[in-house]
Each structure stands twice: as C-alpha cells, then as structure tokens.
C-alpha cells in the first residue's frame, strides 16, 4: 500500500468487528425469534455466557444451542441456528476489505486469528475475503481462545517470526493487551478507526 513505512513481516487480523461489522437489529431479531429466546444480543444472555466455550471447541453445536435456548435442540435445529449466527456476522467492513486488497496486492504477508466456532469456520470456508490470507487460525481448531497468551505464542511459532515483526489488529482491549504483553505490535480497532491511516503511521 503506497505510503506504508517499514512494514512488519506479518499483518495479523481479527475477524469480528474488524473484517465484519456488528450484526444488525434485524439479524438479532431473526436469531432471537428462531431460538425462541429474547435478548440474545445482551451481553448477559446465554448466547454470550457460553460463547467462549463454543469458540474454544469445548461445546458441540447441539449442546451450545441447547444452553442458549434453555431446551434440548436437534442437530437440524442447531445447524439452522448456526447458519443464522454466521449470517449475522457476515456484514463486511468495506474499508477493511479495501485495506486487505491493497496489502495482499502489494505482497504483504497476512494472517487471521479469530475466536470462531467450528460451524462458522465451515460457513466461511472459501469466502472471498479468505483469499487474502496466507494463514488462517481459528480458536475452535486450536482449542484455545484469545486473550489466552498461549494462542498468540502458537501463532507466532507457526508464522516463524518474532513478536515485534507482527502487527496485530483486533477490536478487544483484552486481546490487544495480551498480545502487547508478548511484544506484538497490537492496534485496537474501533468503529471509528481509519484503518488505512492507522497503518500508514507505522514507525520507520
């Protein structure tokens, strides 16, 4: 990307709220209606209370959605709820996609590290945005989740690089702090972040 100074060896991106935007109210309405549970979007809901274990691969879909709905669900119903869940996290941040296109087009090495349950990983397999990434790391495959430092250590080993040669972009303060604790150059991505401008502020 023109204007970048001293680019890192690897750019490591999060998915949710970086590549994707947040679900819309209509998305949550649909999921809550199909699950038969109001308020799933609230951080105190069962959707979020059990999400870390789902992302980590500790809960299979039927068990996760049974806990979310408060009743036993079939494989078919769990699969349908997974589809709705993946769909609501499929609204893309067009600015980020432009940055990914420019970075990959310039020959930069890109990797992805996302807390994501296995069904959603399968849903996004082959999605256009994945072509930008040389490496894809998902919590459900690794059985580790951010902000556990172990997941960052694993990724660094797989990338074969030093922490200071990685630029990590994530929307979670906890994840950013954990990455920085290992020496990774981590940048917090907020809704108002101008990602292209942020990357052009790299030190010489």
TrEMBL record:
It comes from Arthrobacter crusticola. NCBIfam families: HAD-SF-IA-v3. It holds the Pfam family Hydrolase. This is HAD family phosphatase. It comes from the Bacteria. Gene3D superfamilies: HAD superfamily/HAD-like (3.40.50.1000), Putative phosphatase, domain 2 (1.10.150.240).
């Amino acid at each position: 990307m023109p204007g970048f100074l001293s680019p890192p060896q690897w750019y490591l991106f999060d998915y949710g709220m970086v590549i994707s935007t947040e679900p819309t109210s209509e998305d949550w309405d649909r999921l809550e209606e199909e699950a038969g549970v109001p308020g799933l979007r609230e951080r105190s809901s069962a959707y979020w209370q059990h999400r870390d274990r789902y992302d980590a691969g500790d809960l299979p879909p039927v068990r996760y959605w049974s806990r979310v709905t408060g009743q036993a669900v079939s494989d078919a119903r769990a699969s349908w709820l997974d589809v709705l869940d993946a769909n609501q996290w499929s609204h893309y941040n067009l600015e980020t996609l432009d940055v990914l296109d420019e970075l990959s087009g310039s020959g930069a090495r890109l990797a992805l590290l996302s807390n994501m349950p296995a069904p959603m990983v399968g849903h996004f397999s082959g999605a256009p945005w994945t072509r930008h990434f040389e490496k894809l790391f998902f919590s459900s495959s690794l059985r580790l989740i951010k902000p556990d430092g172990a997941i960052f250590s694993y990724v660094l080993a797989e990338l074969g690089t030093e922490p200071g040669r990685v630029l990590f972009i994530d929307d979670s303060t906890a994840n950013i702090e954990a990455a920085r604790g290992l020496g990774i150059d981590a940048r917090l991505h907020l809704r108002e972040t101008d990602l292209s401008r942020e990357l052009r502020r790299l030190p010489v």
